[in-house]
Structure formats: C-alpha cells, structure tokens
Amino acid sequence: MSGVYITIVSVIYLGVLFYLAFVAEKYKSKNKSLIDNPYVYALSLAVYCTAWTFYGSVGRVKEKGLEFLSVYLGPTLVMLLAWSVLKKISRIARVNGITSIADFISARYGKYRSLGVWVTIISFLAGVPYIGLQVKAISKSFEVITGITSGIYFYQDASFFVVLILIVFTILFGTRRIQSNETHEGMIFAIAVESIFKLIAFLVVGIFITFFINDGWADVFKNHYFGKQIEKSFDFENSAGYGNWFIHIIISAFAFMFLPRQFQVSVVENQSEKNLKQAIWLFPLYLFLINIFVVFIAISGTSVFEFNTEVSTDSYVIALPRHFGSDLIALIAYIGGFSAATGMIIVETIAISTMITNSVILPFLLESTRFQEKFKFKLLNLATWLRRFAIVFIILTGYFYFRTVSNLFSLVSIGLIAFVAIAQFAPIFLGGIYWKGASKNGALAGLVSGFILWFLFLIFPTLIPEDINNNTLLIFYNKIFGVIKIEGFDEISNAGFWSLLVNTFTFIVVSVFSEQSSSEAKQAVLFVDIFQYSSIEGPSGFWKGKAKSENLFELLASFIGRSAARKNMDEFGLRNEIDLQSNVADPKLVSYIENTLSGIVGTSSANMLVSTIAKEEVVSVDEVLAFLKRSQQILDDNEELKSKTEELERISSELKIANERLLKTDEQKNEFLTTVTHEIRTPLTSIKALTEIIFDNEDLEKEQKSHFLETIINETDRLSRLVNQVLDLEKYESGKHILKKVDISVKDLVENVKDRLEEIANEKNIKIKLLYLPETKDIKGDEDKLLQMLINVVSNAIKFVKPHEGEILITLNSSKKRTVFTIEDNGIGIPKDAQIRLFEKFYQVENGSYSDIKGSGLGLSIVKKIVELHKGTIHLESVVNKGTKVMISLPIK
Amino acid sequence: MQIRNDLKVLIADDEPSILMSLEFLFKKEGYTVLIARDGQEAIELFDSQHPSIMVLDIMMPKIDGYKVCTHAKTNYLKHKPKVVFLSAKNKETEIEHGYELGADLYVPKPFSTRDLIKKVNLMATDLL
After folding, report:
1. CA distances, A304 to each of A225, A231, A267, A291, A709 (Å)
2. Within an 8 Å CB–CB cutoff, is residue B115 touching chain A?
3. Which CATH superfamily is domain A3-518 in?
4. Which run of H or E residues covers position A818?
5. Of A360, A528, A532, A887, whose Cβ has the fewest other Cβ atoms within 10 Å?
6. How far is CA B26 from CA A174, A688, A691, B41, in A?
C-alpha cells in the first residue's frame, strides 16, 4: 500500500484521538465524566497491552511457545487476588494527593526526596527504551504495510512525524490541567478508545487467519503445526520451565502494579474506588480476548513464512493478511498496532514527565531560597512548562533510542528488561504500605541494590564492545555471574530473582537496623493504617505548626487562581467548620493546602512550599498517636457534653417546677393562715359575747346562764380541737411526722373506734355495726394515727345521718396485699360537685349537718394525709339522700 | 323604750351561739328581733318584715351577707334599712368593700357587745 495512503490513515486516526479527548474534556467542563465508570477504567488499564502485546507476543510464541502468557497471568492474578492491595493504594494516593509512583514512594518514606529521584531515574531508564520500542513498532509496521524502507535520515522516517504529533497530543491533554485531582479526562478517554481499537483489530486479524484462511482452530494446527519447525517451541524440553514461569508471572504482576503508566491509569487517574470492583473481571477478560488468537497467528505465520527470512516474526500480524491479499485486514492490523503503541507512549510520557518535574526538578529548584523568592507565586506556570519540556525530552529520547540502540533487542526482551527494573519498586512499595517498620534508609538501600543488580545482569552485557575479551574486569564479571546463574532460568528470571532477593533482603535488614525519623513514622502510620484514619474525603490534620491563613491563601492562589483558591478554601472551611478568619491557620487547613499543592507539584515540593510559610514543628510518633486518640476523645467528649447538657436542662426544668410548686405552696400557706384565723375568730366571738353578757347581766335567769356557760365550754372545746387539728395537719404536711409503725390488729382497732364513738352515737340513737370478713388480715401502721383517721371518718358519718334512723356499717376485708376499711352510712349524702372538694382543707358542705357541733373542715384533710402516709388510697362514693361509702385501702406491710 | 319596740332588728348568722348571744342582747335593749340562719332566710324576712336595722354576717350558706345588703339597700319600701356587718373578715379591702355596698357599720369579729349595742342604739335614735 502507498506510503501517502497509510500516512493519511495514521493522521486521521490521531485526529480521531484528538476529537475524542476534546469531547471528554468538554463533558468534564460540564461536570459530567465519560471516564468515571468501570468499563473505561478497565479499558484504560489495558494500556498494559502495548505494541509488544500486539506484535511481540506472536514472535515470542515462535521462540518459547506458550511462555508469553506469563506476562498476562501476572496482571490477571493481581486483579483477581490482590485487588484489596490496589484499593489500599488508591485510597492512600487519593488521601495524600499522590501524582506518580515516585511521589508515592517518597511520600511514604517521610517525603524523602532521594527516593523520589531514584524511582524517577529507574522509571526513566526503563521507560525510555520502552517508548523507543513503541516507536520502533510504529516504524516497522509502517515499513511492513507500505513495503517502503525508511531512509537514513530521521525526516525520511514516518514514525518521526508520528512522534511529533504524539508530543503535541501529550502536551495538550497531559498538561492541560495540572492538578491531579482534576484528572486527564480527555487523555484517559482516548486511551480507553485506543484499547477498543487494538482489541478489535487483533480479533479481526485472528478471526481472518483462523476462520477465513484456515478452517477453524483445528485446521490451523493440522496445516501449520504438526511436523513444522514451530512444534519444537512447544516441546516440553524446550519449554520455559516452572521456575521461569513463576518468576515471569511475579515480575509482570509487579510491573502491572508499578509501571509508571500503569500507576498513572490505575491509581492517579482512578475516579472512584468502586470502579475497581468491576475491573476485577473486566480487565482479565480483556487480556483473555486479546491473547486468544496469538498462538494461531504465530503458527500460521511461522508456517507461511518458513522460507522467507526477510519477514520478522514481530510483523506477522500485518504481514499475514498482506500475504493473503487482504489489504483491508492488514490496514486494520496496522491501526491496532498503531493504537497500542501510541497509547503506551502518551501515558508513559505523562507519568514520567510528572515524576521528573515533581520529584526531581521542582524540589531541587525549591531548595534555593533565591529561586523561591523569585518564583514562588509563578510556580504553576513554571511547573507546566517544565512538564512540557519533560514530555518533549522523554519522547525524543525514546525516538533517539529507537534510532540508535533498539535494533539489538526484540520487542519482548526490551519490555521484559523494563519489567525487571520496575519490579524493584515492589519490595519498598508493598513493604511501605503493610509494614510500619519500613524506613527510608532501608528503602533506598533496597532499591539501589536491586537497581545495580538489574543493571549488571541485563544492561552491562549489552554495553560491552565485542572486540574486548581479555579485560580483567570482564573476566571477573563473567566469573561471578557465571557462578550465581541458576540453571534453567533465562536471563530475565535470573536477573529478576537475584535483584529482587537482594533488594528485599537489604530493604528489610537496613530497615530493622535503622531508626525512623518522626516524619517517616508519621507517614508510616498514615499509609499502613489508611483505612483506619481516613475517609475518602482527605487527610486529617497531623500538621503541627503555625501558618497564617492569608499566606496559605496567597500560596494556593498562585497555583489555581484567586477565585478558585477562595472557593476551595471557603468550601473546605465550611465542610470542616474551620474559622478561616483566624490569624493562625487550622492544622487541617494547612494539610489541605499542602495536599492540593501536592496534586500539582508533588508531595515533596508541596511540603517544601508550605514549610516556607509555616514553621513545622517536629512531630513524634507518640504525638501522632496522641492526636489520633484525641480525635476519638473529642468525639467521646462531645457525646458526654451532650448528655451533660441534657441533664442540666432536665434539672433546670425540675427546678422551675419546684419553684412553681413552692410559690403555690406559699400562696396556699397564706390562704390557710387566713382561713385558720377566720375559723378561730368565730368561736372566740361567741365566747367573748357570751362572757360579756354574763358579766354585764348579773340578774340572768339560772337556766339561761347555764345554757350560755355550756355554749362557752363547747366553743372553747371547738377552739382547742381546731388548734390541735391545724397543728396535726401542719406536722403531716411538713413531712416532719414520723410514723411509729407497729403490728396492728384491725379488729381491735375498729372496736376501739366503736367504743369511743358509742356515746355520741347513742345520743343520736344511731347504730354502729362491725363486719369482719374471714380473710381479713392485720396490718402494720401507726396505731394512734389510724385511730384518729377512722374516728374522723365515722364521726363525719354520725354527723350526717338522721337521728334514730341512722345506721353505720364498718366492714373489714383483705386482698392479697391490702386490707380495706369500708365505712357506709345511710345519711344525707354528698352532692357530686362537693365530692371533689371534700378533702380540701376547711371545705364544708353547705347542706348543714344534723349536729350542733360545727366541724373545723379539717377532718377529711387529716384523714387523707394519714392514708397517704401509710401509702394507702381513699375512695368515696355518695348518693344524695341515700348515703355515703368511704373505702380506705391500706397495704398490709 | 316604747318606741324602740317598734324597731325591728334582723340578725343573720350561721353560728348558733353568736345568734343566741345577739338575740339576747337586742331583746334586752327592747328591739323586736328577727333571726335568720342563712342569707336566704334573711332576704325572705327582710321582704316580709321590713326590719329597720340589719346585723349581717358575711360568710353564710346559700346567700352571703354582701348580697343580702345589696338587696336590702336597693329594695327598701319605706325607709332604707341600716346595715351592720359583723364579720371575721378583717382585711382593709374587705371592710372597704362592705362600706362600698352601702353598709352603715362594719364590726370585726370578735366584737365587744357593749360597743355594738351602743352603736346600734345611736343608729336607732337617728331613725326615730
């Protein structure tokens, strides 16, 4: 096919990517997200499948049979078995505003910059060849599909122009918004679509080869496998062996988690933790589908091109359809491979450029105070430009690598060498999030030792010019590495095994023997116990130091603009109930600002920036723990305070009621006093009047005189009775009265009452009858009081029955716990309205009695008091002109 | 004395002993004494006998002394009767209320029989 045609198709394809990215960004500006769903998330993870997968797997099959699958089994196992690890990583990254894996690792180890720098270096060294590999794939596939060999100069190479377009794309969508919490929406959406392209393309080629050229799965084997050269690759003797499988799976699992681009899509760009749940099966499914035809294409290709050595195995995917005359299928294959390569270049570049600016250049620049003074408030622009330069630098270095070095390696081996380098992050990363004892010295020692071994095993041999043979150093090298080489392991497994072993061992030993600084220990607690101390919201304020709110505002404003900064801080203040006006900023606010800045310039730089305006005090582990305890304590205290307040409210309302009762009692006392004086004056008046009469009238008839004197005596009795009753009642009401409780025979009690009232009753010719029911039980009580109580009730009855006709019946009865005294009469009865007031003090029914002796109106009040003192109840029934029944029920004990 | 005999004095009180002593006193002074045990009896006696002087207790069953006073002062036939309140209610406000209703005298209980007789005799001279 013509070069112009393919170039146009490539440019159109990239145009589509631009369009899709713009659409996604546009949605984002309307606060809708095209990428916040598990499908796009899983597809973005498929950036794992690069040109290596697309072209290289087929080549790998020819060499090693099914061993290529180990690279996909690793990630599958991670998704299926270690998704909780991924969840923890995501949470930590979100809470701490992590922008890259270098940022993550240095943040964990006390924002230790050297670690970040080393991680960046390793990522760069692993990433650039990897990018070169993608460029190589683009270039090669272009050659294969067009049949044109590119010229000697770079401007004669189509892939160079592709690279330029990719630089534009990456800058446009990778540095468009620099804050990490505003993710690269357009870029991720484009990547997800690219993943669809490459999957469909590979399936199309696979189906074409398997079902159209051949007659199905079995036919491929029948025609192209048995007896052919490739059969040997699948031989057991030639197969990779369990050791290689095992190491390759481990290394690819680590690579899947820690490759800069994988970390970018799976952690930094992750929109929400719940997307992870679906990706657990979506992503393995994707890997399954994209690998399903690899073997069949490889077998067919090897057979078809058995005698054509000019066609490289890595290009079978395009070469086969071409060979069978289907240019359309070949074009689809080309686009698939193109999308696999471009996707990787874009994401990897963004990830590494972020590391270079945030973990290396900015912290370095910020160390200079002169730089700080000059650039502090222009840092956002500077960061953006730095990142753009880094992007250009990375992609061009990758291109340069492709032009100069890459021909020495196959697609897969470059990929695997990068994998081993990246796997060096695993011990310190995983150790960092599960082991609080992991220290920065241990991490650095482990990482560097692993890196050195990686270099010695995999890079050093390729750097030796072939004509030097007798160098002593080289002999020494060959001797050492010849001895430790494990039999049956390939280069990758051997290097992977030794580097990871030494790395892990050094990491653990140095960590155990080195002391953690306070900031390290603080970060260790925060990372390891992330689920304990964080909501998804963000960090809790550990920050201990003093900063002015307005300085923090200025700092934030220089990055995100004044209005956005104002809005951010206001919202944060509102959400966390922080007073933004106070001069000394709340620790939570300082942490929040630092976190927001972390999203822009990385944790180390953000930490340095904030510490320029706020003097951080050293925080010890104990203080961190104390802080955490205090937070809990505050919650508890709040609870306690709440209950205390409630109690206070209850008490004050009780006090109010008591006060009202007191006022009422006071009023009642006054009224009582008025009534008492009135009641006392009445007999006094009679006595005074009558004595004056007797005194003034010596000539009184004897009969009249004695009648007057008798009245005086009666009135005097009445007076003293009244005084006694008032005093009694007063005693009962004040609560001063103590009951002298004794066992009382109720029968004796009632007979005593009858005896005492017999005389008055006889005067009126009234009968008093007693009735004991057999189950009557004796009670405990104050005998004098109960006697007084019964006399009051019965004498009332006597007063209100008609002479000669009157009958009073006293009945005694008991239930299980109570004894009931019932006093019935056939007197004049009490009207309904009067019944209610009957027990009020001084209340007297107006009907008048059948007795000349006037009551005080206190008798029933006293009865009621005595009943209450004995914890009993009194009940009254009455019908006018029929009679009255009073029932007093007292507890037996 | 002959003349005083023409004057009818109504005594109303629910206390029998007080009633008894007042009856004795006024009879001895020569008045014609009418006796009521409650407010209702007092009004009935006033309407039928037209006493010239009324000695009223205030707290009485059925109808109180205030109402009897008001009735007597507004429904007089020939002469307005003189009203004397005899009461154990001794507060300033209560005494004022008694005079407001048109009472001619308010005597707090316990009273001096000699004083009471003297004052009622004075009223009687006015009437004659």
Report:
1. 11, 14, 43, 21, 153
2. no
3. Sodium/glucose cotransporter (1.20.1730.10)
4. strand A818-825
5. A532
6. 124, 16, 16, 19
Choose, out of A678, A679, A692, A719, the residue to mutate when testing the contact with B (most B CBs < 10 Å).
A692
DSSP string, A504-550: HHHHHHHHHHSPPPHHHHHHHHHHHTHHHH--SS-------EE-BHH
With H, G, I as helix, E, B as strand and everything else as coil, classify residue A10.
helix
Give the number of A-B residue pairs with CB atoms closer than 8 Å: 62
CA dist A296 and A301 (Å) reads: 8
Question: For the segment A477-522, what is each residue's pLDDT rounded down to a tens digit?
Answer: 777 777 778 877 888 888 999 999 999 999 999 999 988 877 787 7
Residues of A with CB under 8 A from a CB of B: 677-678, 681-690, 692-693, 696-697, 704, 708, 711, 714-715, 846, 848, 852, 854
Query: A621-737 in CATH: which number?
Result: 1.10.287.130
B64-76 pLDDT, tens digit per residue, is: 888 888 888 887 7
For residue A490, what are its two tokens?
């390939």
- Of A688, A697, A711, nearest to B110 by CB-CB distance is A688
Chain-chain contact of A696 with B113 (C-beta, under 8 angstroms): yes
Preceding omega of B110 cis (within 30 degrees of 0): yes
| Cα A74–Cα A75–Cα A80 angle in degrees, nearest 5 | 100
Q: Check residue B81 and report its DSSP letter.
A: P
B113 to A678: CB separation less than 8 angstroms, yes or no: no
B61 touches chain A (CB under 8 A): yes
CATH class of B4-122: alpha beta
Each domain of chain A, given as residue ranges in start order, spans 3-518, 539-619, 621-737, 738-891
This prediction has a pTM of 0.58
